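hi! just following up on the protien thing from before. the input was this:
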Amino acid sequence: MTDTGGKTLAEPMTDLAAFRAAMGRFPTGVTLLTQGSGDRTVVMTLNSLTSVSLDPMLLLVSVKSDGRMRPRIVRGEGFAVNVLDESQRDLAQEFCRPDRLAGQAAMTRIGAVEGTLGHAVIPSAEAYFECELYAEHEAGDHVLLVGRVVALHDRPGEARPLVFHRGGYARVAAAAPDVTARGRAA
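and the predicted 3d structure came back as:
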């Protein structure tokens, strides 16, 4: 234990299980990452999505370095990210498995159409982003893929986002609109 002026803290932990548990306390949105369309469609569930820049519009996703998605994105020079809502939980669960569908069967299952860049996009998703590969950075057992957004769609309406927290799906209460912030963080 460490004394910090009256407050006692537990000793820091650095093992993998502790890291996973601590990171699980950070709620994340859930998306489907797609590359290609039709018979060339590959899909995976992804919760590592980060906005990087507004000018140019860049976002970041993280995939396993030795996974099947990385070479497809690098060869195909792009990808799409589809932001899921609560009604699409079954898709998130289905496409996180190693034996997930691919090709036209995957495209049909997720209800996708071919987007501007030739990647599967889901019109019923909360939003989708079509990206050209902008940069790639090694990061341990993963690779960070930065995409330049060339097209996006933000579905109108008030669906609840699909959220992952502490090893399971969580509900988010509907937010009251804040007319003063106009989309900016308070």
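The mean pLDDT is 90.
The chain has one domain: 28-166.
cheers
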